[in-house]
Amino acid sequence: MNWLDEQIARISAPDETAREGARLRLDNLTKPRGSLGQLEPLLIRLAAATGAICPTLERSAVLLAAADHGVAAEGVSAYPQVVTGQMVLNFLQGGAAINALAKTAGAQIVIIDAGVKSELPPHPQLRQLQIRAGSGNIAREAAMSPAEGLQLIKAGVDSVDILWKSGLDLLALGEMGIANTTAAAALTSAYTGAGVEQTVGRGTGIDDITLFHKRGVVVMALERARRAAQGPLALLCELGGLEIAFLVGAILGATARRVPVLLDGYITTSAALAAYELAPAVQPYLFASHRSAEPGHHLALAQLGLTVEQGAGPLLQLDLRLGEGSGAALAIPLLKSATAVLREMATFTEAGVSE
Amino acid sequence: MNWLDEQIARISAPDETAREGARLRLDNLTKPRGSLGQLEPLLIRLAAATGAICPTLERSAVLLAAADHGVAAEGVSAYPQVVTGQMVLNFLQGGAAINALAKTAGAQIVIIDAGVKSELPPHPQLRQLQIRAGSGNIAREAAMSPAEGLQLIKAGVDSVDILWKSGLDLLALGEMGIANTTAAAALTSAYTGAGVEQTVGRGTGIDDITLFHKRGVVVMALERARRAAQGPLALLCELGGLEIAFLVGAILGATARRVPVLLDGYITTSAALAAYELAPAVQPYLFASHRSAEPGHHLALAQLGLTVEQGAGPLLQLDLRLGEGSGAALAIPLLKSATAVLREMATFTEAGVSE
Predict the structure, then answer these.
(1) A129 vs chain B: nearest CA distance in angstroms?
(2) Residue B13 pLDDT
(3) Exposure pattern of A194-208 as b/e (b: 16+ CB <10 Å)?
(4) Chain B contacts in chain A segment 298-317 (CB below 8 A)
(5) Which of A76, A231, A233, B78 is most exposed by smallest CB count within 10 Å?
(6) Main-chain dihedrals φ then ψ at residue A108, nearest 5 degrees
(7) Which residues of B touch A93 (CB under 8 A)?
(8) For B293, what's the count of Cα atoms within 13 Å in the CB-facing half-sphere?
(9) B237-268: b or e for each residue (b if 16 or more CB lie within 10 Å)?
């Protein structure tokens, strides 16, 4: 067994006793049955994932991975590549949306330089992986070598283990990388079989002409990758961003520790698709924070079983298209509120209320 | 000018300077323009309502009004009438969903006995109005007299003023009253003109036969009220619950103080419809926390201009049907998170990020 297979084998099945316990408790609390709507299946899944009927989510973290993308050279983004590094500095200085949102949610932020091209100063909140600076241009070459991909996945597992050792109840994922919706679209097409009309969107806000061009670039990348790669890991290395490979590792690491993983938007969800292809056992530990404005996001969530119809819908639908983990951080207080209900409410018998 | 007209005249127009200031600031923060989706028009409306470009919502309260409904005698609810008082005791003991949710949101709860039939003990968190115990059965008689309606509205204004004097940035509304979705449906039909097929739903969970019966009861109430009443206040007294009349006053009081009002589900939104009919100036101060499972709720929100298309959509769509202010309390952290973004994020210039 190689290292990755061993890591995957550490992911347990969800806890059916805790699942049933949460279901029973919800039906005995002083409220009409089912009246908490989508929060009820959410709480039941959280119990199954954590193994606790009444989970506590006090210690949460946003793992925010940044990297540059060679495909930016194809002109697929509304922003220049230098913005990736500038935004990492902004995160470190506390000036980005995710800083405000994580603070309000009471979550710590850990920032990972998974392959930013610009020079970044050392900083206590920043972990620099130094595996590769920027991915290859996926329209013309592999994003990374298989060895680099495995190193990034391993770094993801390790980063979560470090967090877990000092206490971690909930892991929110975030990302930053100019042009990374292009990589996410390519991965989503590769893993779901959906055409680029369904998976390529406007990212942070490109115009019609750039949108058509971006679709062509993803078609090129997909054709190249299909010739070059076989299997989910090879596809990830062909098409995925460096931060996406890191996040795949973070998902494998968190699920092996029974830590629920809160996805953000399209890019973190494409990482979840890759993780799910490698290890279907991750599914019970995945939670969708929001459905973003990117059209392919819903498709990727559906493939993961994370829709309302599948009993695990995204908590928010606010047309966010910011990334950084912003949607995940917004949803943390919702998850905390839901678990407080399960933990603190009285049953009909305790409260003396007629059933 | 009578007392009510004077109160209504205290509601100011929204602050257009603050609105424009928030809009400009949002466009200069280090994020792609519009990338916060529906949170951006929300923040712009909050600025206009409060008069602050970067509002703070630190001091929030859930005003939870309970009352009994004579129409419960028609068998329109899945629960017996005695549950209203039992649930108020549960609120006072801290065992209900709203207790857990308000605590997580950092909001205080003020409970109003606006006309519960069962005897309730004095309690520091409970204000007992003693205007009337239970409304009339609206299928056969007026819910309350015009004098009682005005007293309840006045009590709502007074309750908000008490809160406001010790500091209030955000008012969330909640309610409890067995059979009160029947009153909400009647008011929504009366104020929007929509038929009972659109406004009468399953409340806390009635079966098909009871649903048809409930529609018949609302038709009876509407026909009776149309003969008896003219004008929005008279309709409220004919059809509205005692807690609904109180909440109308709370809305008039809060909006006169420029305090944003966070609606909960169908019943609080029917109170907002009544307030809006009395005083259209309340609209800029109203915020929809969620869209509930009740079919008429969306209709009522649309009449109030509180849909996504109208730039003021509900923050959550989780199929909640609990009431108590539960959806409003769930949304408080979202509002706080959004305002933190507006207040704490850096601009492109401050952060040195390319625009």
Answers:
(1) 23
(2) 98
(3) bebeebbbbbbebee
(4) 315-317
(5) A231
(6) -80, 155
(7) 346, 351
(8) 17
(9) bbbbbbbbbbbbbbbbbbbbbbbbbbbbbbbb
The ipTM value here is 0.96
Residue appearing with tokens 């969306």? B298
Main-chain phi, psi angles of A126, to 5 degrees:
-110, 130
| Count of CB atoms situated within 10 Å of the CB of A259 | 25
Residue entry with tokens 């609904």:
B244
Token digits of residue B154:
């006045």
B286-288 and A261-263 beta bridge pairing: unpaired
Task: Give one DSSP letter per residue of B119-183, joined into a string.
Answer: -----TTEEE--S-SS---TTTS-SS-HHHHHHHHHHHHHHHHHHHHT--SEEEEEEE-TTHHHH
Instruction: Please report residues of A whose CB lies closer than 8 A to that of B86.
Output: 351-354
- Count CB-CB contacts under 10 A for residue A307: 17
Q: Which two tokens stand for residue A65?
A: 């991975």
One-letter amino acid at A279 equals A
The mean pLDDT value of chain A amounts to: 97
Question: How big, in percent rounded to 5, are the helix, strand and coil portions of chain A?
Answer: 55, 10, 35
Per-residue model confidence as pLDDT tens digits over A135-170: 999 999 999 999 999 999 999 999 999 999 999 999
Residue A288 has pLDDT above 70, yes or no: yes
Give the pLDDT confidence score for residue B293 in this predicted structure.
87
Query: Cα separation of A297 and B25, whole Å?
Result: 29
A268 touches A238 (CB < 8 A): no
Q: What is the pLDDT of residues B130-140, one digit of tens each?
A: 999 999 999 99
The catalytic residues of B are 324
Per-residue pLDDT tens digits for B14-67: 999 999 999 999 999 999 999 999 999 999 999 999 999 999 999 999 999 999
| Chain A residues touching B97 at Cβ < 8 A | 29-31, 36, 341, 345
Beta strands across the sheet bearing A261-263: A126-128, A108-115, A60-67, A170-176, A261-263, A286-288
Task: Cite the active site residues of A.
Answer: 324
Segment A339-355 shows an average pLDDT of 92
pTM score > 0.90 for this model?
Answer: yes
For position A205, what pLDDT does the model report?
84
Which of B168, B315, B191 has the alpha carbon at shortest distance from B244?
B191
Report the candidate in A354, A201, A122 with the shortest Cα–Cα distance to residue B77.
A354
Structure tokens at A156: 């993801």
Looking at this protein, which amino acid is placed at residue A46?
Answer: L
Could you tell me if B150 and B131 are in contact, meaning their C-beta atoms sit under 8 angstroms apart?
Answer: no
Q: Is the pLDDT of residue A1 over 80?
A: no
Residue with tokens 């119990």: A47
Mean predicted confidence (pLDDT) in A292-320: 96
Q: Which two tokens stand for residue A61?
A: 């973290």
Report d(CA B121, CA B128) in Å as an integer: 10
Looking at the partner chain, which of B95, B105, B354 has a beta carbon nearest the beta carbon of A350?
B95
Of A94, A319, A344, the CB nearest to B38: A319
Q: Is B315 in contact with A318 (Cβ distance < 8 A)?
A: yes
d(CA B298, CA A315): 18
Query: Which pLDDT band holds residue B1 (cuts at 50, 70, 90)?
Result: low
Q: Is B234 in CB contact (< 8 Å) with chain A?
A: no
